[in-house]
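Hey, can you fold this?
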Amino acid sequence: MTNLADFTADELAPILDAPGAVLKGATLADGRPGAFQFLKEMTSGAKVFREAQEHENDFVRSVAIGMRDRLREQDAAEAEAAANPASQVGVAAAAAATERAAQEGARPDPEGETARAVELAGVAVALLRARGDEKDAVAYGEWILRIAEQVAEASSSKVGGFFSKRVKVSEGEQAFIDRLTAAVSG
């Protein structure tokens, strides 16, 4: 069985970052979603993450729990920074605050985010195949694809104009899923 402790911090980063990037990429795969569509897709993605915390594969379960714990640590650090602003004095803290502000105010780049998700997923699965158990690499890749598929199916999209039909998965979402499938199939 593959363990998260088997990887260095640099190797672990894409493994923990890929699922979130796939969620974001799937949400943006057919452009910028409306508020209702975004909410439905994020809720669907969150459900897949919660399910993964009880996944039958130990490695997928440990990644999901590791992501949850990392988010809790980030939230605690942000709460500490808000409670004690003096702790955030310095050049590095100012640079980090400027970077966060720029990212929060920036409009999402659908093409960039989907490309980043595909790249991170490919890197993560390649690392697992090279350093871990093949069974864990396959389960992780299937989980990544499940995230993308569940998000894509969460809300129907219109094809064409106002009087057009609705489809469960848009062409852009399917293209993203196809690229992601190729990346995790290696």
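Oh, and this one too while you're at it.
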Amino acid sequence: MLRLVVVLLFCASAVFAVRPDEVLDDPVLEARARELSKELRCLVCRNESIDESNADLARDLRILLRERLVAGDSDEAAIAFIVDRYGEYVLLRPTTGGSNWLLWAAGPVMLLLAGGIGLRYLRKRADATNPQEDTLTEEEQERLRRILDE
């Protein structure tokens, strides 16, 4: 029973994030707002969308988004307005353009670099010759025999 209550509370948290006073009268605009708010990150919760978050800042962002849609902005214009105001970090799926290409490319580049360094190390290690055993001179061999005989 306790598990069921916990599961229901976690499932219901996203439902209660959008308060009744935020909901738009126009169902089409409200549906657009809900879809767009799923793409925007809550700056307090970090890994939640503003649609799921109960933080005050997320509420402010939801209201701002709805105001932009009511004002007649397109989806792209409303998102661009919020990104201009809060930075690209507000997007749950950041763009690959601009300076972000460096962040997107850093992982594969580092993997290739590490693979190249590892391959070079293994080849160099395989090519290395075993150190030659120094052979003893006749005098050293004779001295060794005497020491071992004692």
